[in-house]
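To close the section, here is one more complete example, presented without commentary so you can practise reading it yourself. The ligand is manganese (II) ion.
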Amino acid sequence: MPYELPPLPYSYDALEPHIDEQTVRLHHDKHHKAYVDGLNNAEAKLADAREKADFALVKHWARELAFHGSGHILHSLYWATMAPAGKGGGKPEGELLRQIASDFGSYETFAGQLSASAAAVEGSGWAVLALSPLGKKLEILTAEKHQDLTQWGAVPILTIDVWEHAYYLKYQNRRADYIAAWWNVVNWQEAASRLTSALKRM
Ligand code: MN
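Output:
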């Protein structure tokens, strides 16, 4: 099933005067829509490549998948985590406030770090408050473009290290030989149990 542009959860002018109606219209209907379309196109092109067993352009489409997929995820989160003027703003409460205070010291230091991080992003990008699975801590992360080079929210199930340090002593420059060898040592049981637990959390 292709991805669809989620409707804006409020009217186009709901964020006025802080964020203007014309910006929201263009941002949601044109920019966010383009990421959804780009993600669907990348998935279709990759399906086509699998069918033809022709992976000549796989690097290009993997980049498109990361760029548009991450753009779609981050924009969906951006719209969902704003509220109409008068209903948003203020301070978090309850568990979120306690977690922020525990991980950043106080709400004020957290807000300072988030604003500074967003202002410091080079070029086009994002500041993101995220829960890191390492230690279950809140972290403020930034992204250049949308991805560089991950897909936000994706849970890793299986990975191949292709840094030279992972294979150079034995395979030198023959990375493809190392990748072929790696298939002989995959732990599918571990991957399957990681998939099961990730599915439970989504
Ligand atoms: Mn945007």
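Once you have examined the tokens, check your reading against these statements. The chain has a mean pLDDT of 92. The pocket of manganese (II) ion is lined by residues 27, 31, 75 (CB under 6 Å).
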